[in-house]
Design a protein that fits this description.
Elements: E1 3-8, H1 15-26, E2 30-35, H2 39-42, H3 45-52, H4 70-77, E3 78-86, H5 88-96, H6 102-109, E4 114-118, H7 122-126, H8 128-139, E5 143-144, E6 148-151, E7 157-161, H9 165-177, E8 186-191, E9 196-197, E10 203-204, H10 211-222, E11 226-231, E12 243-246, H11 250-261, E13 266-269, E14 276-278, E15 297-299, H12 303-310, E16 316-323, H13 329-338, E17 342-347, E18 359-360, E19 362-366, E20 369-372, E21 376-377, H14 378-393
Parallel strand pairs: 1-2, 1-3, 3-4, 4-5, 8-11, 8-13, 11-12, 13-16, 16-17
Antiparallel strand pairs: 6-7, 9-10, 14-15, 17-19, 18-21, 19-20
The protein binds flavin mononucleotide (FMN).
The site of flavin mononucleotide has 15 residues, from helix 5.
């Protein structure tokens, strides 16, 4: 029976952690509960000890078995660390690597999937520091089960209610199920925009943030893959376990990706590569002259099509396509034109989705048809996509 550590921090929603513990046990997990001091003021350890049949800890110096450091013991044996409810305070402590109680110390010693279900007042959830903590934790690969909208305990309306128990259980099942479906595989990603120089200080580019590429890199690592990212200029960081090659132009991106393509089992072109580049890069800085100005552009090579042509036999090559809501005809045409096995289409015409956004919705188009993901965070979407691609790889 796989072990889980359920961390409970000091929110009114603590009472729901008892139901969550039971549901996780019904799914076959052996659950050990760790309360923060604040949580222990809302609910008693005795409740969780009675439900789980295991000791419930708060203090790092509490050792149910003498001489065994419980924080290391629990961290080593857990298939996942679930924090539900996760307070603003605990999220910030986790993001900054504090180890000032049992829960945060276990988190520091734990190397597996971290599932976080925040619950708090909407203003606390919107607070810059809470957002930063969640971004930081997501960047490190945590699974965040977004809180629901509605009336929270203090009577205010907004986003902050603990997600439903089935949603949290589903996230735990997902987090613990796909640990190795890309084990032994090499995943090559292109990510971010390209910058095509006009002169020494100006360039042509686009709004790609690299968030989808970073989410795919994290998900692929969590699924056991070796990951190489060839990235255009982006502000965000990629996971430290990924090999990252930084480039600027489409030509540099192609050259860098070509030097890795022969080893790759899965190649995903997420980068928004400029179709054209200025024919000439003017030296220095172009001066303002007439009222109008023409810029000569020449076509860039098609990066993902070239990679598909050079991939090893059996490798799976996937192109991302940003389509402004014109149906899937262009995606089916791209399958053939680019020689890829799948096209992942994001509809960039919908507000809040796609480029720069934290959410996206994909339709995966292959020769045998299409499947739509629905709207979800880029982290979840990355896993959704890679699970399907891992299935195709066999
Ligand atoms: C009645 C009450 C309800 C609270 N509910 C929440 C909550 O839902 N979410 C939250 O982030 N903090 C909440 N707090 C504040 C936290 O309990 C407080 O920040 C505490 O220091 C959190 O400690 P912990 O993160 O170690 O559990 C609440 C406090 C009280 C007194």
């Amino acid at each position: 029976m796989p072990d889980l550590v359920l961390g409970v921090s000091g929110s009114v929603a603590c009472y729901r952690a008892a139901d969550l513990a039971r549901e996780l046990m019904r799914e076959g997990f052996s659950v050990r509960v760790c309360l923060t001091d604040s949580a222990a003021r809302f609910v008693s350890p005795a409740l969780f000890e009675a439900l789980t049949g295991q000791p419930c800890l708060s203090d790092v110096f509490e050792e149910p078995e003498r001489g065994r450091m419980a924080h290391i013991d629990w961290a080593r044996s857990a298939a996942a660390l679930v924090v539900a409810p996760a307070t603003a305070n605990t999220l910030s402590r986790l993001a900054h690597g504090l180890g000032d109680d049992m829960l945060t110390t276990i988190a520091l010693a734990f190397e597996g999937p971290l599932v976080l279900a925040p619950a708090m007042n909407p203003a606390m959830y919107d607070h810059e520091t809470t957002r930063e903590a969640l971004d930081r934790l997501t960047e490190r690969g945590a699974w965040v089960v977004e809180p629901a909208e509605g009336e929270v305990a203090c009577g205010e309306q907004g986003q902050g209610k603990l997600a439903s128990i089935p949603e949290i259980v589903a996230a735990v099942l997902e987090a613990t199920a796909h640990g190795s479906s890309l084990a032994g595989r090499h995943v090559l990603l292109t990510s971010g925009p390209t910058q095509e120089p006009i002169d020494d200080v100006r360039f042509l580019s686009n709004r790609s943030s690299g968030k989808m590429g970073a989410a795919l890199a994290r998900a692929a690592l969590q699924m056991g893959a070796r990951v190489t990212v060839v990235s255009g200029p982006v502000a965000l960081g990629y996971p430290p376990q990924a090999e990252v090659v930084r480039v600027r132009t489409a030509l540099e991106m192609l050259e860098a990706a070509l030097s890795h393509v022969a080893q790759a089992d899965l190649i995903v072109g997420v980068a928004a590569v400029a179709d054209y580049r200025p024919a000439q890069r003017a030296p220095g800085k172009l001066r303002r002259q007439a009222d109008t100005m023409a810029l000569d552009l020449v076509a860039n090579p098609d990066v993902i099509a070239t990679l598909a042509g050079r991939a090893k036999p059996g490798a799976l090559c996937v192109a991302f396509a940003a389509e402004p809501g014109e149906g899937l005809g262009p995606a089916y045409a791209k399958l053939k034109a680019k020689g890829v096995r799948a096209v992942a289409v994001n509809d960039v015409s919908q507000p809040g989705l796609g480029m720069e956004a934290d959410e996206n919705a994909l339709t995966l188009v292959t020769e045998s048809g299409e499947v739509a993901s629905g709207r979800m965070s880029k982290s979840r979407l990355a896993r959704w996509l890679l699970e399907r691609l891992a299935g195709e790889l066999g």
